[in-house]
Structure prediction request, 303 residues.
Amino acid sequence: MSDPAVTIRKVDKNYGNVRAVQSLDLDVPGGSLVGFLGPNGAGKSTTIRMIMSIIYPDAGSIGVLGSDALKAKDRIGYLPEERGLYRKMKIAQFLRYVAKLKGLSSRQADEKIAWWLHRLELPDVLKRRCEELSKGQQQKLQFIAAVVHDPELIILDEPFSGLDPVNAALLGSIIKELNERGRTIIFSTHVLHQAEELCDRVFLINHGIKLLDDPIETVHDRYNPRVLSMELMAPRDIELPSIDGVEEMSRKGPLHEFHLAQNADVQSIMQWLTSNLDIRSLELRRPTLNDIFVELVRGAGTS
Prediction:
């Protein structure tokens, strides 16, 4: 495994009486693509700001690229959740300014800017002011500002915010390309299907406590199979007796879903259903990352 690009050890962060992050440990392997997940107020943005040395932990330590974010700043690209544009500046002026801050020459900056504007489908915007762009266009512009210097480590806080499905897919493909070129990428998101499609690792926190930190395939294997999906020959509501091993039954359109206990005998349940109902289809459904997210967060809330 590659050396960690980011290491977090026993980190605490409090705001008054609110414990935003509690005894947090995390390693982000170099070259990995990590989805940083959690409900609102979980501590995601606080953790990202501590990684970036924007704020500091009350206890514990954080390492970034063998040092800290301030010393490695020109090797890091950061997209904050908040808009960071100079609204009255023209786009060419803004991007050249950011590129020069990161050490690019004027020629390098113009080449990189032209390439990225084309890649992100932002034609003919250089002479416009930042405030004239739509919310989605501003998000793409801010992404360019984060990666124009070709950083080793890219940290994106809610990168899909404000993007329609077409542009979210475009940005997702670019994030994947950057990772395939060896860049380490951490991104926080509420768009769980994007994380599921892109990431090789996911990290979930709630109330500042780590609930999950594993490769995506390990997560799926651990929670699979958990749901039976059934479609009847004649879709209808049905009343079923309690079935051993089934924790919850629900209906989504024509499909009836059976949420199974960890120790459920899947074959016995399927046999009972096929013997007692006129079924069109019955299959084990692999839980989505959204299913796993909801289960873990709800479980943490009741523990």
